[in-house]
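Notes, p. 3: input format for complexes.
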Amino acid sequence: MKILGIETSCDETGAAIIEADKNDNKVKLLSNSVSTSLLLHAKTGGIIPEIAAREQVKYIIPVISDALKGNKIEGLDAIAVTVGPGLIGSLLVGVETAKTLAYLYKKPIIPVNHLIGHIYSNFIENQESEEIDFPAMALIVSGGHTDLVLIKGHGKIKWLGGTRDDAAGEAFDKIGRLLNLPYPAGPHIEKLSEKIAKDNYRFPRPLIDSDDYDFSFSGLKTAAMREIQAIEQLNNETISDICFSLQEAVFDVLITKTLNAAKQYNVKSILLGGGVSANQKLKEEFESAIGSRQSAVKFFVPAKNLSTDNAAMIASAAFFNYKEVPWQKITANPELYFD
Ligand code: KG4
Ligand code: ZN
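Output follows (339 residues plus KG4):
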C-alpha cells in the first residue's frame, strides 16, 4: 500500500509517500519533501505563529506536488495527516488540505499524533535497517517536547513522563539566545561543542535522581543565565565551553532517565525521535552508556533529515496504526497529547 503523509504542525511543511506491505516491519520511503519558514523565524529569534501559518499556505500545494513526483493521487491508498499537537493556524492548513484531497479523490484519511509520528521515523527503512523489537522505550526530544513512552506494540503506547517546564530543545534555544546564537540554537550548540573536551561549567542535572520519569530544564536555564551574566566579555572560547557543558548536563539527564526506564520495563529496543535526536554527540553518548551498562538493548536513531519535522514519519505512523476516520470527523487539535 502507498500512503501520502502531510505534516504542517509548526514551521515545516512536509509531504511524503511511503510504501509497505501488510507484513513489513519497516516502510519504504518513495519521496520526502520539506519546506521550512525557519529563516523567517531566525530573524525574530523564535517562531511567530501567524507567520508560520501564512507560510504553510504558500508551501502546501508545491510541497505535495513535489512529493507526488510521477505518482497520481488516484494511485495512492490513503492520506495521513498530523492533527496535533502544534500551532492551530499551521495545523489547519494541513488538515483542511488533507480533508479536501480525501473528499475529492475518495481516499481514506488517517489522523496522526505528531509525537507518535516522531517515534515512527525509526520505522522507515535505511541502510542499517535492523528490526525493532518490542517492548521498546521511546524518548521524544524536540523544541516542544521531552517525553518518555513505553511501546508494548503498535498502538500500545504508555506515557511514562515528560517535562514539567521547558523541553530540551527549548532550553538549547533559550540559552542560545543569551549567547547570541542564531535560532534554532541546537545545531549551533552542537557545532561549537565539538572543539571542547572538558565540562568546565558542570551545570546542574535537574531531576536526574528523581524516582519518576519527569524532566525539568528551566532551572538549568537559570543556572546558565547566571553564569553568562557574570562573564564580563563573552568570547568564542567561553561560548563554546558553555555550549559543551550545557549539552553534557541535558544529555546526562536524558540518557540516565531513559536507561533507567529501559531497565525497569525490561525493553528490547530504545528509540529516539525529535529535533534534538539529530545531535551526533547525543547518539554517541547513548551508545557508550548502553555499552557500559553491558545491556543487549538495541538502539535506534532516525536519519538526520527524519529527526526534525517531516511527513514521512506521519505516513509511517499511519501505516502501523491504520485507523481511518471519515473526513467530516477530522479536526485539528493543538493540545493533543498521549492518550
Ligand atoms: O522536532 P523539531 O524539528 O520541532 C519540534 O517539534 O519542536 O525540533 C526542533 C528542536 C529545536 O529546539 C532545535 O534547537 C533542536 O530541535 N535541534 C537540535 C539539533 N537540531 C535541532 N538540538 C541539538 N542538536 C541538534 N543537532
Ligand atoms: Zn516535532
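The chain has eleven helices and ten strands.
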